[in-house]
Amino acid sequence: MATLSHVFRQDNQQVFVLHTYPFKETSLVVELFSREHGRIAMVAKGARRPRSAMRGMLQSFQPLIGAWSGKLELKTLHSLEWGSGLLLLQGEALMCGFYLNELLLRLLPREDPHQALFDFYGQTLKTLSASFQHAPTLRRFELRLLQELGYAVPLVHDEQEDDIHPEKTYSYFAERGACSDHSGYANRNGVQLIGKTLQDMAQDDYSDPLTQLQSKQLMRMLLAYYLGDKPLHTRQLLIDLQQF
Amino acid sequence: MKNPQALDQLVESLRCLPGVGPKSALRMAYHLLQRDRPGADRLANSIQNALQIVSHCQLCNNLSEQSICSLCSSDNRDTSLLCVVEMPTDLMMLEQTHSFQGLYFVLMGRLSPLDGIGPKEIHLEKLIRRAKDGTVREVILATNYTVEGEATAHYINELLSARGLRVSRIARGLPMGGEIENVDSGTLAQAIMERRSL
After folding, report:
1. Which tens digits make up the pLDDT trace of B62-73?
2. Considering its fold, how many domains does chain A have in total?
3. Contacts of B127 in chain A (CB under 8 A)
4. Quick check: A93 and A135 in contact, CB under 8 A?
């Protein structure tokens, strides 16, 4: 029996809180992103009681160390501690953080470990908390997320396996890549961009304003393709806030 | 056996309460109809009554029986200070401190991007109208120090600062009588980062 419970119990796990939902009178369901186990859902019993030790800790964007057990989809969270270094996301960066979390909640399958993505997510939060230019940070994360999930985003070759030419205009399609204007897909609604944008993205260089604009359009189209019909709440919220 | 239609309807209605599933709803319905009919009558009347009388105060957005609540119409308050809180319970807590003499605005929620709760749900338009009445000099943001509360405070600040209002945020850090030895490291780290000069 002891060995069994040992198998189902996980201690000392690096995690981030992605989101929490109220559950019953005093508990929470917590969506965690853990380094070793990917995205997992668990019940934090009594976490909404005023004196719960976990209450203040169940905040997004903080590196935490957690312990849980359970063999079903919904685990039981036993404890949480502060991990290494506190991150202070403020203002715009906070909204960017919500956006990252929404992407992870929507695209990451449950219990599918993505250690590299976990580390990159932590790194991205750190960058967000320290800088004012968030757009390149978000583009990098979006691209990395799709790549880690196994979706190909070819940036150095076009659809015909030819090298991308910086001055040429391409139409970019999900699952297909860059098509030069003369191919048969040109009149379907792909994202129009120049070769340099793709080269810049491949080299992780977002300094050119045109690259920033076109990479944003490209990533938006690709994400919309993989997210399906349901729009992103965070984007809608920002649109709504613009109206004031 | 089929339940009477009115009973089914009652069960269905009770399920609109948070945390009440089909089983609990049925239990409540049986209790009301079998054991406590006068109680059921009182419940029905008070719900009906409250629905008719209670609405949002035109100024502070809190629930009130008058169109302007007693707090907002009081003469003893400092009308140049407006404190923004998330929920009526937050207002109650602040009132219990007896340290704030200004007026309030209750958002009745917080921005929560992942739950789809946006600016319309937290009455931002009403807040802007309220804050711009000409007598308010300073808006104090007393939303929670959760990520959602912080995001809410940030956007309210953007909206109100752009309209020329002075905006402040309640402080955070060690609790009263707080001993560094026993305080959680998150609070302590924030207290260090947001330290003030003496």
Report:
1. 999 999 999 999
2. 2
3. none
4. no
